[in-house]
Specification:
- This protein has about 90 residues and is α+β, with helices and mostly antiparallel strands.
- The chain has one domain.
- It contains 2 helices and 5 strands; from the N terminus they run αβββαββ.
- A 5-stranded mixed sheet has the order 1-2-3-5-4, covered by helices on one side.
- The longest helix is centred in the first third of the chain and has 15 residues.
- The radius of gyration is 12 Å and the shape is globular.
Amino acid sequence: MEEREFWGRLEYLVSAELPGFLWCDGLVAEEYDADEIRGRAWCGASGQEAWRFTLRRNGRDDWAALLPGEEASDWLAVDPVGRTLVIDGGLPPA
């Protein structure tokens, strides 16, 4: 899987996990390091509010391996007040 495809799939998964009135309209990576990727997320009731996200790599480097498994739970922490997302990438099914 290429990086571009990864971000599109992750955007879809994040939107599906957000509480009822919130959705995600894009993720833009800005900082990469061995443990995390950080960047901007376009989320909120309109999907156009500037949020921040952190994707924890959990020891994974392969883009496909960073997507949460279909049955994974607790992989997304949402703070609507602080406008932040923390994504635990590649967690196995619960």
